[in-house]
């Protein structure tokens, strides 16, 4: 068989896929070859479908195999007048692959579907507070024109900034009121609040925020407090909440209906136009359309809506149903959606055994989803650092409080001890894993978030390094991440075993994560298979942290390295990050074990 490959007009068609012409000598001799003609043009009978921008008009001498294949496509129309099948242009990829032994003739001009010309551009009088990268500018343009869209950029590409800049542009191009941020992961509330202040002149208010009379520290109040905020809206552009708040207090009122106090009040604000923009961060957390959180989220709608995720959604078409339904692009029931995109079989004929019509759903996603990978974006810095705040669980917060009170009772001894930092290690450990300090309470918000991050990183086909100062923490992380076949290095790991673990992490595709202490794994090792570094806790010294980061960020690294530090809100974690960032290290603690009284007071404030 001879295969001729053509790229017509030097223009790639989505993701640089070549259109192939296949030619079979033997079949030609027998006169059995089928000519398939494909003409690319503007939609005709599919013009009412907003998702179809270019149509493929397919004609051929009757062949039942080709007809049956085309009929399996969800979106296609037959025109008996000229004996052509009209379908979205994306579907011709599958057609060409399926009938590769036929001669295929393609006419028309091809377009790079990823380079779209937008009607609405960034206003000339809009000034970015922080300099955007080129892909972030494109993301803002995409949002201005689509109004309702999926933003699924790879981790570390700045999805949050793109939404904040989009809101800034909307303030210039449209009349908008408040912006609602719904976090699929609870801890992201504070990251949004922080980044809003960095990338704009606006303020973000976490619903239910209250302040302790004794210390003045902020904390998240009850559902009642959040409802009170919605009755008397704070003076700010952004309202921030989480998916748990939306479903809080759910009350079943009929067989299929629920009462959601907070979600319903937010829905009223949306209907009145008080909320103009909704961003649903980590939307993949609501895959199940029947879950309480999905039901609550479905009540909310606004003129501008963005569903955000760094996790690939195309692994399973069913994962796409809720975000597409919420955005208004999918009008069918979940049952109909499942019937259309899934092959059912197994016990009772209701189990998903395969998928179909994938070309159609890919065409849809090309229209409503923007996803860029780090490897595709060339204007990024080589290392991106991010602090991610988490809320301690109630029991974890209680243990931290007990340890804190004990430390405060020993404050004078701590100030004049030879190694005051070691006296506060228990406080830091309380933010990481309560089991180190308690036999009855075994939990940690940090560990929960670490598992979520590794799940997302692994789903993206990437690897990660997890660091901690303490072996006890790495042991817990190892147990929590055992499903990802982790490599493991601590001070107790022998030299030969250490290198075996490094080799396994670097070369074994099933080994998704390597876990270790900063002391044992933070220097001298090459771990370039990782594109992500997670710190469960930071060292006292910035130089040590930079060395640990550079296990991944060095010659041989493929793409940008994301560095995430998990920090418990309103704890010593925050103070350490602030002091280390400011001073490089906390006094000269690593030299002579001395810490200034000023620093100690700040760490414990």
Topology, element by element:
Layout: E1 2-6, E2 19-23, H1 25-30, E3 35-41, E4 55-60, H2 64-71, E5 77-79, E6 84-88, H3 91-98, E7 103-107, H4 134-146, E8 148-151, H5 159-173, E9 178-183, H6 188-199, E10 204-206, E11 209-211, E12 218-220, H7 223-231, E13 238-242, H8 243-247, E14 251-252, E15 258-259, H9 261-271, E16 275-281, H10 292-297, E17 304-308, H11 321-327, H12 334-341, E18 342-345, E19 351-355, H13 358-368, E20 369-370, E21 383-390, H14 394-409, H15 411-415, H16 425-432, H17 445-459, E22 464-468, H18 471-480, E23 487-489, H19 495-507, E24 513-517, H20 518-521, E25 532-535, H21 542-549, E26 561-568, H22 572-583, H23 589-592, H24 597-603
Helix pairs in contact: 4-5, 5-6, 7-9, 14-16
Commentary on this structure:
With 605 residues, this protein is an alpha/beta fold. It folds into three domains: 106 residues, no CATH class; 237 residues, 3-Layer(aba) Sandwich (Rossmann fold), CATH 3.40.50.10810; 221 residues, P-loop containing nucleotide triphosphate hydrolases (Rossmann fold, 3-Layer(aba) Sandwich). 37% of the residues lie in helices and 20% in strands. The protein has a seven-stranded parallel beta sheet with strand order 10-13-9-16-17-8-20, sandwiched between helices. A six-stranded parallel beta sheet has the order 21-26-25-22-24-23, with helices on both faces. Helix 21 links the parallel strand 25 and strand 26. Helix 7 runs parallel beside helix 9. It starts with a strand and ends with a helix. The N terminus is likely disordered.
């Amino acid at each position: 068989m001879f295969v001729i490959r053509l790229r017509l007009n030097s223009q790639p068609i989505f993701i640089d896929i070549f259109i192939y012409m296949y030619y079979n000598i033997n079949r030609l001799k027998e006169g059995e070859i089928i000519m398939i003609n494909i003409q690319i043009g503007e939609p005709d009978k599919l013009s009412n479908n907003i998702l179809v921008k270019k149509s493929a008009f397919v004609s051929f001498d009757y062949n039942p195999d080709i007809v049956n294949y085309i009929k399996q496509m969800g979106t296609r129309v037959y025109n008996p007048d000229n004996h052509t099948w009209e379908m979205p242009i994306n579907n011709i990829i599958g057609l060409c692959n399926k009938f590769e032994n036929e001669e295929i003739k393609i006419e028309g001009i091809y377009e790079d579907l990823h380079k779209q010309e937008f009607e609405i551009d960034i206003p000339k009088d809009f000034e970015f507070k922080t300099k955007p990268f080129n892909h972030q500018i494109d993301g803002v343009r995409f949002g201005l024109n689509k109004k309702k869209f999926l933003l699924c950029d790879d981790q570390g590409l700045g999805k949050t900034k793109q939404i904040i800049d989009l809101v800034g542009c909307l303030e210039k191009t449209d009349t908008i009121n408040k912006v609602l941020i719904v976090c699929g992961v609870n801890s992201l509330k504070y990251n949004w609040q922080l980044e809003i202040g960095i990338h704009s002149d606006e303020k973000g208010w976490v619903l239910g925020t209250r302040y302790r009379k004794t210390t003045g520290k902020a904390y998240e109040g009850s559902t009642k407090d959040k409802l009170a905020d919605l009755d008397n809206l704070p003076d700010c552009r952004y309202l921030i909440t989480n998916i748990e708040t939306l479903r809080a207090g759910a009350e079943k009122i009929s067989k299929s209906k629920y009462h959601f106090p907070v979600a319903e009040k937010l829905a009223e604000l949306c209907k009145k136009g008080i909320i103009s923009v909704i961003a649903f961060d980590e939307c993949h957390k609501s895959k199940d359309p029947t879950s309480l959180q999905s039901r609550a989220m479905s009540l909310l709608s606004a003129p501008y809506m963005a569903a955000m995720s760094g996790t690939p959604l195309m692994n399973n078409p069913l994962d796409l149903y809720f975000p597409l339904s919420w955005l208004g692009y999918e009008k069918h029931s979940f049952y109909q959606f499942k019937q259309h995109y899934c092959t059912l079989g197994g016990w009772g004929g209701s189990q998903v055994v395969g998928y179909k019509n994938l070309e159609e759903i890919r065409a849809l996603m090309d229209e409503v989803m923007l996803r860029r990978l780090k490897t595709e974006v060339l204007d990024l810095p080589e290392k991106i650092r991010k602090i991610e705040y988490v809320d301690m669980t109630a029991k974890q917060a209680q243990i931290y409080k007990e340890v804190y009170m004990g430390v405060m009772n020993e404050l004078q001894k701590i100030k004049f001890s030879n190694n005051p930092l070691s006296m506060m290690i228990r406080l830091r450990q309380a933010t990481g894993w309560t089991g180190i300090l308690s036999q009855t309470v075994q939990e940690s918000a940090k560990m929960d978030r670490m598992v979520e991050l590794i799940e997302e990183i692994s789903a993206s086909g990437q690897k990660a390094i997890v660091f901690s100062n303490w072996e006890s923490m790495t042991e817990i992380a190892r147990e929590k991440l055992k499903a990802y076949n982790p490599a493991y290095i601590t001070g107790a790991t022998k030299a030969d075993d250490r290198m075996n673990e490094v080799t396994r992490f670097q070369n074994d595709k099933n080994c998704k994560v390597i876990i270790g202490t900063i002391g044992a794994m933070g220097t001298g090792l090459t771990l370039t298979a990782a594109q992500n570094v997670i710190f469960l806790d930071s060292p006292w010294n910035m130089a040590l942290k930079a060395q640990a980061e550079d296990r991944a960020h060095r010659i041989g690294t493929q793409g940008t390295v994301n560095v995430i530090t998990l920090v418990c809100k309103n704890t010593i974690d925050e103070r350490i990050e602030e002091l280390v960032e400011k001073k490089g290290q906390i006094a000269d603690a690593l030299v002579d074990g001395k810490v200034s009284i000023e620093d100690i007071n700040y760490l414990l404030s």
